[in-house]
UniProtKB/TrEMBL annotation:
This is Putative DNA-binding protein with PD1-like DNA-binding motif. InterPro entries: PPC_dom. It comes from Microvirga lotononidis. Residues 19-164, 173-284 form the PPC domain. It comes from the Bacteria. The keyword Oxidoreductase does not apply. GO terms for molecular function: DNA binding. Keywords: DNA-binding. CDD domains: DUF296.
Length: 284
């Protein structure tokens, strides 16, 4: 597998997962509010401090985003583009926001696909600078005893979301719990997903999340060569097949040139570039 060298010492623990009881969420983002503030209100109303939100449609104006880029120096293995600011309204096709906290305040990390005056685009939404233009109903999964906390990551030299326990852990059955999960660089995302579920006794799950991969290999033979990518899990699951866990993932990917790719990932040949954040939702 491809291997990327980051500036810091390699962390010994390559995957982190924290279990919690899921709280199904459905709420409305109100016009005129920044996306992160609107999502924070919905979570607070349900007493939740971490989780995910899924976007399926919705209109925003103004809208700001970045795409992956090569690092301009040796301080990081990859970086971000300049900020893009499409003119006029932007329609979300699909997206996922990981919800957590940074510096003690609500914070989200969001990747998505959208249509603007410049065509169909994909990238990393800058939520504080993106404004809701109409009431948008969103769905999600919240948790009350854990969250994703933005912390300095010495290996990559980024500040990244890390799953953390907050308060007393709740004992819940494997088919009725979620795992807040982080996968570190150079781990194949499908193998990591299967290993995490095996450790936690989960044999069937839906998988939600976003991250970056060091090049992408699809099951149909197509590929993305750039080491700097942004990835959105479009459909993901874990299931027991022939006495072993399998975690097929269908993803959207954008490269530094703004090209969008979609497809099923090859099993065992898609290493994480910087980080991958997952919500693993156990199902009966």
């Amino acid at each position: 597998m491809r291997h990327i060298l980051h500036p810091g010492a390699v962390a010994p623990e390559r995957m982190t997962a924290v279990a919690a009881a899921p709280v199904p969420l459905r709420f409305t983002l109100e016009p005129g509010e920044a996306v992160d503030a609107a999502i924070a209100k919905g979570f607070a109303a349900s007493g939740c401090i971490g989780g995910i939100v899924a976007f399926q449609g919705g209109r925003f104006e103004t809208f700001r985003f970045v795409m992956p880029a090569a690092s301009p120096d040796a301080l990081h293995a990859a970086w971000y583009s300049d900020t893009f600011a499409p003119a006029g309204p932007v329609e979300i096709r699909r997206g996922c926001a990981i919800v957590g906290e940074r510096d003690g305040k609500p914070f989200i990390h969001c990747h998505g696909v959208w249509a603007s005056s410049e065509g169909v685009q994909m990238g990393h939404m800058l939520a504080p600078d993106t404004v809701v233009a109409e009431p948008i109903e969103v769905t999600g999964i919240g948790v009350r005893t854990a969250t994703f906390r933005a912390l300095p990551d010495p290996e990559t030299n980024f500040t990244l979301f890390e799953p953390v326990q907050v308060g007393e852990p709740v004992q819940v059955d494997g088919s009725h719990r979620v795992l807040l999960t982080k996968v570190r660089p150079n781990e194949d995302i499908s193998l990591a997903l299967e290993q995490i579920c095996s450790r936690h006794g989960i044999t069937k799950a839906r998988v939600h999340g976003i991250g970056s991969l060091n090049g992408v290999r699809f099951a149909d033979g197509s590929r993305v060569e750039s080491h700097a990518t942004e990835v959105l899990i479009r459909e993901g699951e874990v299931e027991l097949s022939h006495d072993r866990l399998r975690g097929p993932l269908h993803v959207d990917v954008v490269d530094p040139d703004g090209r969008i790719f979609s497809g099923d990932l090859v099993h065992g040949d898609n290493p994480v570039c910087v980080t991958f954040e997952l919500m693993i939702e156990g199902v009966a």
